[in-house]
Write a structure and sequence with these properties.
eight-stranded mixed sheet; 571 residues; five-stranded antiparallel sheet; globular; alpha+beta
């Protein structure tokens, strides 16, 4: 298995089925799991860590929740059938052909070891959330956080001795009420590495004889908020160097730190890297992207010169458009207590000022990755400038910036988006009367709250939007409920009588994360009030409008909505 690269990929030829893929050193990629098995976990609602390669077999979670094992070249065997509401995920290799996994339901989480024969041994059980089981020399490292907290706010790293087969109580070695730890991993030196934001930034640390030291002290986040299991933002090179990501909210740099602490930049052509770093001997593989290419698989020779560029693993790994997009600029706008940063995409050759679309990302604990985004390019190609706002509460800017939105959702994010629009109008980038705001999910709530205030926007689009945070808090999975609770502030629910500009509401009937019924009721109430409001209800689809047809229909409706508003006679 050494020298092989493994990843999970959606297969468009088989209805979007997620399959485990493999590429050997020859560079030829092939699907490992059959097309009638879709791989994906729903552990803690958002899943992750849904497959692991253990010796000569691939273990994976199927879309029915069962745990499968597939020896290479064979068909999958259902090792552990789904039982009630239990979910498996966060898979990791164990000894003797076994796999470690987190098994959870609404009452408790367990870390279990599963043998190829199907025997399941519970190693750790907790009424709290668990993740990241990692074993070395009989010592199990794992994470635990309370059910009234999110792991990016408060999380503990524990060690348990399992050599006797009867695990003792876990011993806390890092983390706590005001510290978030994540991504534990045993290094080739036998020491434990992990991420911690004890300084206010997620940096990489090493544990040696109960002493914790930092690897790369920096005022930057080296990991994202752990929405899913299985994140790995660092890896170990054969020469003893550590490879890790460094984020600033927009771009992600790949850095190598050698044993002497000397740093060097890797793959400078990549501007966005997902938290799935794989290092094997002298090769680094990542899911990365650039301002002119969408996310794909990239590889880098770690033994090459310092300025060596990352290269696509295969030609289709880094899909680029037939034209060269104009790279966005990073700009700032003043707000009450400082400034807000944003990416600005401008249509090539267009004379300013031009129509402006402000995009509120769907976080709130999200960032604004500097990469090719087809939705942004769609509007840029139709003459719009697009501003993607890294509003307060976003990730990539440290713990304090992330938590400042607590209790102020629908306020600070709205203020920041409005400030960007005003700034671009005052600098003659944006056309007065043709400035719009758009957002999906939590960003849809931001857009609706912006439409509920006097401000610069002539219209707003809310896709798969949250309408009432209090009601939404009651409907979200247990994992996310503390997040919804801590964000909710005085902005409250969106009500039709408060809306001050035309609104387009877009929702899918099969959305399981936000309520289509609630969104369409808002649309009906707005229509009853008169004005230029509009709505689009998509049959089937999902929260993310994943199907290309649904995405295209939504984009066309949104563009037509803005054009119609711009064609109105001005008062």
């Amino acid at each position: 298995m050494a020298g092989s690269l493994w990843w999970l990929q959606s297969d468009p030829d088989h209805g979007g089925v997620r399959r485990v893929m493999c590429s050997e050193r020859s560079g030829i990629a092939f699907a490992v799991t059959p097309s009638d098995f879709s791989v994906g976990s729903e552990l803690h609602a958002y899943g992750g860590g849904s497959f692991a390669v253990v010796e000569d077999a691939v273990w994976f979670v199927g879309d029915d929740g069962s745990l499968f094992r597939q020896p290479l070249g064979c068909t999958p065997d259902r090792i552990v059938p789904v039982c009630g509401s239990e979910q498996y995920g966060d898979l990791a290799p164990g000894p003797d052909g076994r796999v470690f996994a987190v098994r959870g339901d609404s009452a408790a989480d367990e870390i279990v070891a599963v043998s190829p024969a199907g025997s399941v041994q519970a190693l750790v059980r907790s009424s709290e959330f668990l993740s990241c089981p990692r074993l070395a020399e009989g010592t199990l490292a794992y994470l635990e956080w309370k059910r009234d907290q999110m792991p990016w706010d408060s999380c503990r790293l524990l060690l348990a001795d399992i050599r006797s087969g009867l695990p003792g109580p876990g011993r806390v070695v890092a983390g706590g009420r005001s510290e978030s730890v994540g991504q534990p991993s045993w290094g080739p030196d036998g020491l434990l590495y992990f991420m911690s934001d004890r300084t206010g930034w997620w940096n990489l640390y090493r544990l040696r004889d109960d002493t914790v030291t930092t690897i790369l002290p920096t005022d930057a986040d080296c990991a994202p908020a752990p929405w899913e299991a299985g994140y790995q933002s660092y890896g170990f090179a054969a020469d003893g160097a550590l490879v890790l990501t460094v984020l600033d909210g927009f771009s992600t740099k790949l850095m190598a730190v050698d044993p002497a602490g000397i740093r060097r930049r890797l793959g400078p052509n990549l501007t966005s890297v997902k938290p799935y770093i794989a290092v094997d001997d002298g090769r680094l593989a990542v899911i990365g992207s650039t301002p002119s290419s969408a996310p794909g698989l990239w590889s880098l020779d770690l033994t090459a010169q310092a300025d060596a560029l990352a290269v696509p693993v295969s030609p289709e790994s880094a899909s680029a458009p037939p034209w060269t997009p104009t790279p966005p600029s990073i700009d700032t706008a003043q707000v009450t207590d400082g400034h807000v940063r944003f990416l600005l995409h401008r249509p090539a050759g267009a004379a300013a000022p031009v129509p402006l679309l402000v995009r509120a990302h769907p976080g709130p604990t999200d960032d604004v990755p500097l990469r090719l985004d087809w939705t942004t390019q769609f509007f840029v190609s139709h003459g719009f400038a697009v501003a993607e706002v890294l509003y307060r509460g976003s990730t990539g800017r440290g713990r304090a910036f992330r938590q400042v939105l607590h209790g102020h959702w629908g306020e600070y994010d709205v203020e920041d988006c409005a400030a960007v629009a005003e700034h671009l109008r005052s600098t003659d980038v944006a056309l007065p009367g043709a400035m719009f705001i758009t957002g999906a999910s939590a960003g849809g709530y931001t857009a609706l709250q912006a439409a509920s205030r006097p401000g610069p926007f002539a219209g707003a689009t809310a896709t798969s939007a949250i309408i009432d945070p209090a009601r939404w808090e009651l409907s979200v999975p247990d994992f996310q409920r503390p997040h919804a609770a801590v964000l909710r502030g005085t902005a409250c629910a969106v009500t039709p009588e408060r809306i001050r500009c035309p609104v387009l509401v877009i929702h899918s009937t099969a959305d399981t994360i936000t309520s289509a019924k609630e969104a369409m009721q808002l649309a009906q109430d707005l229509a009853a009030l008169g004005g230029d409001h509009d709505s689009l209800l998509l049959d089937d689809g999902d929260h993310y409008l994943s199907a290309p047809a649904a995405r295209e229909q939504a984009l066309r409706a949104e563009l037509d909505f803005y054009r119609r508003l711009m064609s109105r006679p001005r008062a």
